[in-house]
Amino acid sequence: MKAAVMTQFRAPLEIREVDDPVPGPTDAVVRVEACGICRSDWHVWQGDWAWMGVSPTLPLIMGHEFGGVVEAVGSQVQSFKVGDRVTVPFHLACGRCHYCYSGRSNVCLAYGVIGVNSNGGYGRLALVPNADVNLVRLPEGVDFLTAAALGCRYMTAYHAVADRAQVRPGEWVAIFGVGGVGLSAVQIASALGARVIAVDISEDKLERARQEGALITVNARAENPVGKVRAVTDGGADVGIDALGSAQTALNSVFSLRRGGRHIQVGLTSQQEQGMISLPIDIMVVQEINLVTSLGCPVTSYPGLLSLVASSRLDPRRLVGQTIPVEGVNDVLNAMTEFGTVGFHIINRW
Q: How would DSSP label each residue in 222-262?
């Protein structure tokens, strides 16, 4: 099969022919029809997150946002068959532990992250371990491009907005960083009836945020985002979401909140912070500001997400900026280094 293979960190991925994966007894092989290029892929390519124990073995086929068709299944797979249309949460669970039984399969990570700890969707075929637990059937009306678009950034935003922040109609939601996760959060929070403020330093991204429902946009290069959010909301946002992952965006979110507000940390940091951010804990205690973290999206939340997508109340496909052949992956990764991508870039040709 053809695949984009990372052989060195920060070096161009190599487009080459590799052996087709063969499923074990509980595994499935998916023929990838569309796969997103996520900023998390960029972090892995940069060699980030070693401080969290993320040290992928090279060579590696990245890609954790994909939809496709089941090509083969192992002898013990019971819930899926060849020809089923599926997607895959990037966090691969066991289905048997305390976390899985309590509806938190997203923090199980028994099999790691697909495209990081095992080969992923930048190849035409991808092996999915523990298929009965880690495959999600696509409903009619959800095509492969949509499945790739919701594969990580969108489903991560959905869990953060709907499950973790529990955003309610009429609340002010300030979203800091409107890349893939942030733009998804704008669309989802707006669809849930929230009043959304989008903050970024790119006018192109802020324009996309307005198209997805942001009532107010703030260019953090041109004005003080904390002051603007607090003025617009008459005292602060109910929810602040750091969708980028930096000391500046996290602090801006916290300082933009009203008393009793909720700060949702979604973005993971990179080399500058290496996961360490100082927070104004005394202010947070006195004002009863909640700090909530959010990772991915548990399988138990997929029925609600997919039903909203199938009914067109949510539309991840609208966020797709460009579809490309697999040979174009390096151009996208290089553009991400300069924060030069707007919307989702998805591989759909091999």
A: TS-HHHHHHHHTTS-EEEEEE-S--HHHHHHHHHTEEEEEE
Domain spanning 166-293, CATH class: alpha beta
Q: Which residues contact 236 (CB under 8 A, 6 or more apart)?
A: 172, 229, 230, 256, 257, 258, 259, 261
Enumerate the domain spans of the chain: 2-151+297-349, 166-293
- Asked if 31 and 66 count as a contact pair (C-beta separation under 8 A), the reply is no
Q: What is the pLDDT of residue 55?
A: 87
Q: Is the Cβ–Cβ distance between 216 and 191 less than 8 Å?
A: no
Q: What tokens were used for 240?
A: 């602040």
Fold for 2-151+297-349, please state it: Quinone Oxidoreductase; Chain A, domain 1 (3.90.180)
Residue whose C-alpha is closest to residue 177's, from 146, 218, 212: 218
Map residue 195 onto helix, strand or coil. Answer: strand
Q: What is the 3-state secondary structure (H, E, C) of 137-162?
A: ECCCCCCHHHHHHHHHHHHHHHHHHH
Name the percent of the chain in helix, strand, coil, to the closest 5: 35, 25, 40
CA 155 from chain center: how many Å? 6
Helix ranges restricted to H, the chain? 39-46, 98-101, 131-134, 144-149, 155-158, 180-191, 203-211, 225-232, 247-255, 281-286, 302-310, 329-337
Contact 178, 321 (CB under 8 A): no
CA–CA distance, 182 with 267 (Å, rounded to integer): 9
Residue 177: predicted pLDDT? 97
Cα distances (angstroms) measured from residue 138 to each of 26, 148, 220, 278: 20, 11, 39, 41
* Residue 229: φ, ψ to 5°: -65, -45
Contacts of residue 201, defined as CB under 8 A and 6 or more positions apart, other chains included, come to 219, 220, 221
Averaged in consecutive runs of 10 residues, what is the pLDDT profile of the chain (350 residues)? 97 98 98 96 95 93 98 98 97 97 96 97 98 96 95 96 98 97 98 98 96 98 98 98 97 98 96 94 98 97 95 94 96 94 94
State the Cα–Cα distance between residues 311 and 239, nearest whole angstrom: 26
**pLDDT score recorded for residue 109:** 93
